Amino acid sequence: MDYGLKTTTQTDNYGGQENIYPDQDAPILRPAGKGKLELAMLRWGFPPIPGQKAPITNIRNLKSKWWSDVNREWMTKAEYRCLMPFTEFVEPVRDSTWFTVKDTEVAFFAGVWRPWHGERLAEQPGKKRRAREERDWELYAFLTTEANDIVRPIHEKAMPVILANPAECQEWLGGSADSFKLQRQYPSNAVALVS
Question: CA angle, corner 85, sides to 59 and 90, nearest 5?
Answer without folding.
Answer: 65
